[in-house]
Amino acid sequence: MSDTERGSGATAARRARPFAASTLALAFAVALAPAPAERAATGTQPAVDGEAERASIETWRAERIRRLTSDTGWLTLTGLFWLKEGENSFGRSSSNAVVLDNPSLADTAGSFVLHDHRVRLVARPGGGVTHDGHAVGSLDLVADTQGEPTVLASGSLRFFIIERAGNLGVRVRDLDNPHRRNFRGFSYFPVSTDWVFDARFEPYEPAHRLKIVNILGMEEDAVSPGAVLFTRDGREWRLDTVLESPADQQLFIMFADETSGRETYGAGRFLYIPLPKGGRAPLDFNKAYNPPCALNDFATCPLPPPQNRLKLRVEAGEKKYAGGPGHHS
Q: What's the distance, Cα to Cα, between the start and end of the chain in Å?
């Protein structure tokens, strides 16, 4: 998936890569399939030490903030420009196709040339664009969906190519972004073991293909190996999971609930869980977090699928970020 904050750096924007359902079934046959006796068991609340849970969540929160405020964190984003076929000049001047009014950038620094779904940088001599600390003339650019993207620099600015639903664009970071300098931190629901579950994992055989729409209206396919089920308020709830890459050791969950648009971000929240073992998976809503688009206007966050919109108040995890785009949900 795109813009899910798998970790620090531009590789956080990796999306699911298609692979055969038979490969998925083979990889998950032992690890994910529940034992016969467990098939009827519901997601339960395990005995969790409250102090240990609070300490674990404090550590998790500190690491998340460390990533967000780093040079490659989401708080540095300052621009996103979708490229058209052919030459796309960029710089401070309004005559460019890509305009970014920043003192770190020349009036015209060069062009991003899109041809046959590939992007090449053609820098203007003296334009100040560098790669790995060296001035660059022309360079083929690797997009984030192809591995580590090629990162260009101009002063405090960083440029790299992203791909979403077949569209190629230039994402820009500013290491001196006021959003980063003025980050206010998050507010949270109280940490509670009431929102920690030993969830039942129900595998899909074969894996489901989910149509996921992002906040810009672009649609992508995602691989869902199964759903997690848990019991709350006397009934069972289910959430479809996503496997973002075949080698991943985590499953990704996009969900919305009855706090969305009120106490929490309107478009929903994200959550990761470890790969299930023996048909069970730990599900800790204290680790529910704001998607990157809650922090700035230049992320392309996927939205929860309809089946993951819970008629339940999940009073755990991060609340709405007060310093987000437009200070709204």
A: 22
Whole-angstrom Cα distance, residue 329 to residue 262? 8
Which ranges in the chain are annotated with CATH 2.60.200.20?
76-181
84: how many CB neighbours lie within 10 A of its CB? 11
Q: What is the pTM of this model?
A: 0.85
d(CA 243, CA 135): 39
As a dihedral over the C-alpha atoms of residue 302, residue 303, residue 309, residue 315, rounded to 10 degrees, the angle is 80
Above 90 in pLDDT, residue 42?
no
Class of 76-181 per CATH?
A: mainly beta
Q: Tell me the C-alpha distance between 209 and 37, whole Å.
A: 28
From 93, 86, 133, select the one nearest 109 (Cα to Cα).
Answer: 93
pLDDT band at 6; cut points 50, 70, 90: low
Output the CA torsion sign for 172, 178, 179, 180: positive
Mean pLDDT over each residue of the chain, to the nearest integer: 89
- Bond prior to 206 in cis (omega within 30° of 0): yes
